[in-house]
Amino acid sequence: MLTVRAPATSANLGSGFDVFGVALGTPADVVRVERASRTTITVTGAGSQYIPEDPDKNTVGAVAEALDAPARIRIDKGVRPSSGLGSSAASAAAAAVALNELYDRGRSRAELVPVAAEGEALVSGEAHADNVAPSLLGGFTVVTDDGVTHVDASVPVVACLPDISVSTRDARGVVPDSASMDAVVDTVGNAATLTVGMTRNDPVLVGKGMEDEIVTPERTKLIDGYERVREAALEAGATGVTVSGAGPGILAVCHRRNQRAIASAMVDAFDAAGVESRAYQTAVGEGATLYRDDS
């Protein structure tokens, strides 16, 4: 048996729609695999009742098929579905690493990115890699048609998850078809600032660089209490706040000394809006980790 822990992720980061992503220290999915004549899947943990165990309808089943690696697969969900924290990507990334090792397929982590992305296509309708790339590689990733650029980073963040759901398909449905040149120029500048911030582990630059006036404003309308939570986080010391992925999760970048206050402020602000939530005090961290069970 092999076990892989793959982290939650946050994609887009405001200015990097469908391009930027980061791995988060917590939460995470844990996937265990054993060789079998055909693939079977069992799912436990957060939101498991909403996840199909049919391999033809599960992200992990798509990964097993792509690697020609049938297995008995057990998924323990730490990342809730429809959270904006890369739930399906974490499972797909963990399965890709585990099955690649189990069957000695010899693929590098970078080569596993498109494999895991095929699993993502079952959820979003398209094989986006902005979540699976950081879950596999860790740190900060930039995904383009030419491949993935990866930077190790350890910027402190707070990820606040309200007890509401926003589907990836719905969130993509509100993305504007066009934008003004001024908005595009501003977004490019912010994305460049964020990238430099990640290379320096500078939460101030990263926070400034998350500003976006094209996609984010439309997605915030799907999250009850967003503006109240954003203002509360900034007042508590956050250097930047944005929607995590498709939402409803909200990501605040900060200095480590302010994490506790920001987490509390965000939860309290959601509570004032009549929404229960929980906050993860974490940081940009490592990608999927492989463990062997030699017993």
From TrEMBL:
Entry similarity comment: Belongs to the GHMP kinase family. Homoserine kinase subfamily.
Reaction(s) this enzyme catalyzes, per UniProt: L-homoserine + ATP = O-phospho-L-homoserine + ADP + H(+)
SUPFAM superfamilies hit by this protein: GHMP Kinase, C-terminal domain, Ribosomal protein S5 domain 2-like
All residue ranges annotated as the GHMP kinase N-terminal domain in the record: 60-139
UniProt pathway annotation: Amino-acid biosynthesis; L-threonine biosynthesis; L-threonine from L-aspartate: step 4/5
Name of the protein: Homoserine kinase
GO process terms (BP): threonine biosynthetic process
Gene Ontology CC, one term: cytoplasm
Start and end residues of each GHMP kinase C-terminal domain: 198-270
Main location: cytoplasm
Annotated residues for binding of ATP: R80, P81, S82, S83, G84, L85, G86, S87, S88, A89, A90
Keyword hit for Cytoplasm: yes
Entries under PANTHER family matching the protein: HOMOSERINE KINASE, HOMOSERINE/4-DIPHOSPHOCYTIDYL-2-C-METHYL-D-ERYTHRITOL KINASE
Organism (species): Natrinema altunense
GO terms, molecular function: ATP binding; homoserine kinase activity
EC identifiers of the protein: 2.7.1.39
InterPro entries hit by this protein: GHMP_kinase_C_dom, GHMP_kinase_C_sf, GHMP_kinase_N_dom, Homoserine_kinase, Ribosomal_Su5_D2-typ_SF, Ribsml_uS5_D2-typ_fold_subgr
